């Protein structure tokens, strides 16, 4: 046991320093803290390990005014605190194994990772501190953790064995975090080793439904090569029967079943997880990876015959095209084509650019590239309500002082918007929402900028460039230019920005009635005491900018807003966002919980 090693290795003074850590926090190894009686007398309920019944340990407990109590054998009920903790750890481990689609032999890694999560989770009994923070003195940096079972791409260090065309990373499985060296623990299926590394990138766990469909497709595609695989397996069987060793193919790693890496704990886990079974049982657990020319690796067999599909296709493909070519070749090609035409029609209506021959490009001017971004706008039920194409400039290539200067643009804070909603409901004000179409195209640019036109057939002539006259999405200064344009118009309409939030405007109308306008880039929330003032404002701003009247607020900054003017109530929720998160992670059909937080929780 770890406790025995510590007792033998440490002298009395050092052991006294480590006694609180050994007694108070070794949940998965030894004992659990049971109760506190008085200011100095602490009782601990311990298991039947030899170290806790030794005379040295008993003397140290007496020196610290700790009374030892031991439970008899086969009486788990007397050790309820520890048993309940074990249940929590194994339920967490079982959930992680199921979510990662890993087999039971990985249970040791899962329990170890669950123990870490248990120790860094805040407790109400510790005044919202975690056991880790209470013991060490500072909170654990949760940004160091990754999703258990996620694909890990470990960097291959440059050496004499790595050539120019060899892969720069190896594919593994993230199985935990090592506190002793602050590194990620990754199990490598190609070498059956556990490595500790900080040079790794991580992907997302693939949805099981998508994985099964892809697996079915791969099985269909590989049916033509089944006979070849059978012949290869038959040759291997014959070689095994005759005692002749099977020569590895070129490029295949020679695996050493007993060559384990990592710490002692990792070796114990790997030996139990991947250790060879007795040959008399007739089965041996092996892992074989055949590297392809691209170096991605194709799994032939794995632990228990199953591993998560991480070598190929770990990421779900997006339903939105990335290029114009993909958009026009997709099933929604007509919708995307119309979205492209609408976008450039808006460009022409706003007089955004002038077409200039490429030969007339002034010397010394940097030509910015551009692209078309495609998005599907959905309602709170996830239904597609609009296909949107946005022509943007690749502003990352802009140079400060050459084609842009300042970039800061204010927006209304969510706290200010929530406050205004509450005040408007209390006053019985009408609340409306409007959206500015292609807002950035209404602001003139402050520098001379030339942009390469997108590769869209039938819109631009070859050998031409575009000289921008107005702000374009993607330019670093476009948000600031739009904010200045809208702010100038609002002040012309006698609106005054508040001192605390420059994007909250107020105007006093006839009869002492007021209007408020909250601006978040191109979204406007309008509050008015009078319906006539509301209609007059909508009419005025629609004459200056191309607006979309959304009526009563629905989705504002990702929040669903329901306003009942008669009842003077407003309801805000993000149910649609939560449903989208559940669908993204394949948990749309999960069992609901009546109390997602522990009962009695008070933030």
TrEMBL record:
Compositionally biased tracts (Low complexity): 210-229
Superkingdom: Eukaryota
Record keywords, A-Z: DNA integration, DNA recombination, DNA-directed DNA polymerase, Endonuclease, Hydrolase, Magnesium, Metal-binding, Multifunctional enzyme, Nuclease, Nucleotidyltransferase, RNA-directed DNA polymerase, Transferase
Cited Gene3D superfamilies: Ribonuclease H-like superfamily/Ribonuclease H
Sequence segments annotated as region (Disordered): 207-259
One Pfam family, short name: RVT_2
A single GO BP: DNA integration
Domain Integrase catalytic: 1-139
Any one Gene Ontology molecular-function term assigned to this protein's record: endonuclease activity
Cross-referenced PANTHER family: TRANSPOSASE, PUTATIVE-RELATED, TRANSPOSON TY4-P GAG-POL POLYPROTEIN
Protein name per its UniProtKB record: Integrase catalytic domain-containing protein
Organism: Salpingoeca rosetta (strain ATCC 50818 / BSB-021)
Lineage start: Eukaryota, Choanoflagellata, Craspedida, Salpingoecidae, Salpingoeca
